[in-house]
Task: inverse folding
């Protein structure tokens, strides 16, 4: 008998991603009560939060990407073992940290060190993703019998994209190039260019 | 093999709508601690938030309407492609913004510009809804085989209602008529009058 | 074709109840930062919130009761029509108000009028529950074909219990007896005594 | 007819665990606005919250453990009776308290009494878990017919582990040894060592 049914791991994953993605909008600074009394003060407020709004949208897309990755993974699996479930709980814990580490993004200009939190968070997420799929592929009894090797290895390459970007980000900082927010959206470009159509034959 | 199973896109959609609709109740200003000590001060507080309560109810109904629209759409689809999923993630991101943009509704009297946020949010939601159904209808392999053209086009017309209202709202503001909250509830009247019984034969 | 599939209304209902029940714990006043430095101050704090904790537990149980009622209702239904879905969205909106109205419970001693909010909220929930089941029973095509009339009428009586309690609460206040928190838990006693074993034969 | 369908109790359980696990991240103190202006002040802030982060991770894992326990239990059950559902609602109420009681963990050094809250919370969770499985095993009609006695008793022993740890914690405090946060993670070690491979034959 499986440790738990597959559907319940899918459900708690959906719940935690949905809640985390919704909660992040709270990181956008709301105006101090009574500070907005004219159109001018409203526009000034908007200008001051525009970067936070962009940061939120970026983090939302990143979480959406990992959510998609996980469900593409689950979709190719028949069942889970305990090791996989423990890894996944770890991965969910890292996801839950995102609204916390993302809340420091707006201070990245004056306080460069504050970026390290989101950086580490993103790296950890990418690592566990690759680890989980590696675990699944080396335990063939967890996989959908219909899954072809071409497709399994195609997914493995896809899951390496965010990890590559995270490592690149760390290298940039060490090389003194500084932190580039936009880098974290690079996976979308890479995925759009090279991983669009799926492996030949396994579509 | 589908990118992800249909049920999981439905689940995260339900999760995000459920949290967003629940979270919005937090936009109602709670009394400052210690400020309410008598029945009179309580009644004064209630009067001061009555408009916020109505605004909340309106936004809840609007989200409920989009939620219903999306599940009427999903119900007529067999599967999703990546393009549809990306559009839907965009749509969910716009939904998550609602508690943020809606929080400015209460200051609309003194700060007319503050309305633009909710206005843009509503317009964006309406646009993506129409876009998604257009995408589905032009990719016949995504649709339920049993779906008749009459019903598909009936849905398309229905989904145009909020977009029409959003455009009307922008026109009103440009024409200097000002912002009319109540306008956003107009779809319910239109839908109740003209879209009640479904297309003939496909009911 | 049904407006939406039954499972999705169940999902959003579960999501909204789960979130509302979880969010309410935030109504318990947390200590002011730095105010607790000794065991004595901690105990004093605990004493000051003990009533809020009990109020929270009561409201949690009440929501749990309505959640159970709704899933007992859904379990006996085959499909939903638009009218039923609109009523249910209304009911969910009323549920979402509970953390708001419940937050005034702790001030009920000094500000008797503050109780009216939770009172009205509870009454509205009870009314819509009865209304929805009445709608379902008068539209036989919505019900499970296997459902016997004895069971349908047994449920109808059960759903009247919270409404009866709500009316009693209003009567108490008009009669000047005042507000009795505990009254809202009365349904559990009534249900435990008279509705334990289900209708004879329909178990 | 069952009181409610099994899937809906699973759904609300997933929902409440997901929100509770996500909400807890809010217990980590965020910096006062404007207090972080240099890398040094950021590092000082990080040092001051490192214990809160560890506490959060511990509580997340503990909730993850109970979540896993419950779904291992549900997985072996065919249906639920009202008594089981009431016990489970009680258990969910205790779960919802965790973000509240956990928020006092960071003050445990100066205010030893503050630990009692989380201690009681953990003990209550453990007790209801054992109680629910006891109820299921003594009502054979609730269990999966395929469930073997070896596996049922293996689960019963597993569910005793957190209860044993909770009792040990209380004993430690009475013996004046003081509160040891780390103790609450002991179940993972015990489970890893003795409950890894499942009962012989029923694995």
Result:
């Amino acid at each position: 008998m499986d440790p738990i049914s597959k559907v319940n791991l899918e459900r708690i994953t959906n719940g935690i991603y949905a809640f985390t993605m919704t909660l992040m909008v709270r990181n956008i600074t709301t105006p101090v009560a009574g500070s907005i009394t004219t159109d001018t003060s409203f526009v000034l407020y908007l200008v001051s939060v525009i970067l936070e709004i962009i940061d939120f949208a970026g983090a939302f897309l990143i979480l959406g990407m990992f959510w998609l990755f996980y469900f593409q993974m689950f979709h190719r699996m028949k069942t889970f073992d305990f090791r996989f479930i423990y890894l996944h709980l770890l991965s969910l814990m890292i996801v839950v940290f995102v609204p916390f580490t993302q809340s420091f993004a707006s201070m990245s200009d004056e306080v460069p060190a504050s970026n390290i939190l989101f950086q580490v968070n993103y790296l950890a997420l990418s690592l566990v993703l690759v680890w989980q799929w590696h675990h699944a592929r080396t335990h063939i009894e967890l996989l959908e019998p219909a899954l072809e090797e071409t497709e399994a290895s195609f997914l493995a390459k896809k899951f390496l994209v965010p990890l590559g970007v995270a490592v690149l980000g760390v290298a940039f900082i060490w090389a003194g190039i500084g932190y580039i927010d936009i880098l974290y959206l690079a996976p979308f470009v890479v995925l759009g260019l090279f991983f669009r159509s799926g492996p030949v034959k396994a579509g």
